[in-house]
Design a protein that fits this description.
- This protein has 307 residues and is an alpha/beta fold.
- It has a single domain, classed as Ribokinase (UDP-N-acetylmuramoyl-L-alanine:D-glutamate ligase), CATH 3.40.1190.20.
- The chain has 11 helices and 14 strands.
- Strands 1, 4, 5, 6, 9, 10, 11, 12, 13 and 14 form a 10-stranded mixed sheet that branches. Strands 3-2-7-8 form a 4-stranded mixed sheet.
- Strand 7 and strand 8 form a beta hairpin.
- The radius of gyration is 18 Å and the shape is globular.
- It starts with 8 loop residues before the first strand and ends with a helix.
- The relative contact order is 0.15.
- The model has no long low-confidence stretch (mean pLDDT 94).
- The structure holds adenosine monophosphate.
Length: 307
């Protein structure tokens, strides 16, 4: 187990253009992507973050500079000279309870062959954000060492298309972070507890199951804990909630001496609070305007109601 303080993070995932439609508004084309939300959220805790991803020739350099100013290194991000960036268009229905994907264009991501050996960095925390599980495995194989802690997120798109490859990478990681619907697709049961048990039987030490407005649950083989969601949040756009939750978890864990059940439980509290900011505006807009103090203030109010 890695006990080093201030762990160096590698975040892998999509960097994208998104278009989001809600009942009352349309975002237009904005910056999104799993790695973008995760790294941005982790940057409230540490400035030792690297992102592995691929962007197209249409991605704004000014945004990469913004990431750099937050302590997120973009030097492992590949730029495709001939393809566009990953593009996703989604719509929320039924008061945000249903998300329909209208378009997923892999674009540059389709040909992504990560090459991290050249970085010669010993990453302590590896955050495998939403990506093709084959690419997640490739990245894992390149940076795995005896002491790093590996977190994995995924989504229905990959569960449906590449389940075998997904279980292969799941068997290698320490912590899986998914939502309740995804856990049911993977764990093949109506009971969250059964799903957690089934997924843990593939190898991970821990699983967090996010339940939207019903909070989140953490399971290990012998322990279980729950936290509620924040109430009184005015939702504008839930996109990135899962990724910013994962980024908050990862950022918090990067500062801990030991990573164990108790610290992962505490990390869920930070993940929940950062996600609650994320959903208050379209895309990254709200996260771009808050500080760690804003997060700590909301943590104080939130934890007053927890046991
Ligand atoms: P979430 O946290 O689940 O709301 O993630 C939203 C982000 O996931 C968006 O910014 C999208 O660009 C990105 N995304 C959508 N579909 C995929 C996919 N199939 N693989 C990886 N990232 C995706």
């Amino acid at each position: 187990m890695n006990t080093k303080k201030n762990k160096q993070i590698l975040v892998a995932g999509t960097m994208a253009f998104d278009e989001i439609i809600t009942k009352s508004a349309k975002s237009g084309k904005i910056i999104g992507g799993a790695a973008t939300y995760i790294s941005y959220s982790s940057s409230f805790f540490t400035d030792d973050i690297y992102v592995s991803s691929i962007i197209g020739n249409d991605f704004p350099v000014s945004f990469l500079e913004e990431m750099n100013s937050k302590g997120i290194s973009t030097r492992l991000i590949e730029v495709s000279s001939k393809d566009k960036s990953f593009y996703w268009k989604g719509e929320y229905k039924n008061d945000f309870n249903t998300r329909v994907t209208h378009v997923t264009q892999l674009n540059a991501l389709e040909f992504y062959k990560p090459c991290l050996n050249k970085s010669s960095i010993n990453f302590d925390l590896l955050m495998l954000g939403n990506l093709d599980p084959g690419v997640q495995m490739d990245i894992y194989s390149q940076v795995k060492n005896d002491h790093n802690f590996v977190i994995l997120d995924t989504m229905n798109y990959w569960i449906e298309k590449t389940q075998k490859e997904l279980f292969e990478i799941i068997s290698k990681v320490n912590l899986v972070v998914i939502n309740d619907e995804e856990s049911q697709m993977l764990g093949k049961s109506d009971s969250i507890e059964e799903c957690a048990k089934n997924i843990l039987s593939h190898g991970p030490d821990y699983i967090i199951i996010k339940k939207g407005s019903h909070g989140a649950e953490l399971f290990s083989k012998h322990q279980r804990s729950t936290i509620p969601a924040l109430d009184n949040i005015k939702v504008v756009d839930p996109t990135g909630a899962g990724d910013s939750f994962a980024g908050g978890v990862c950022g918090y864990l990067a500062l801990q001496h030991m990573i164990n059940f108790k610290e992962i439980h505490n990390a869920m509290i930070y993940g929940t609070v950062i996600a609650s900011f994320c959903i208050e505006e379209f895309g990254l807009a709200r996260l771009q305007r808050i500080s760690k103090e804003n997060i700590d203030d909301r943590i104080k109010t939130f934890t007053k109601h927890l046991l």
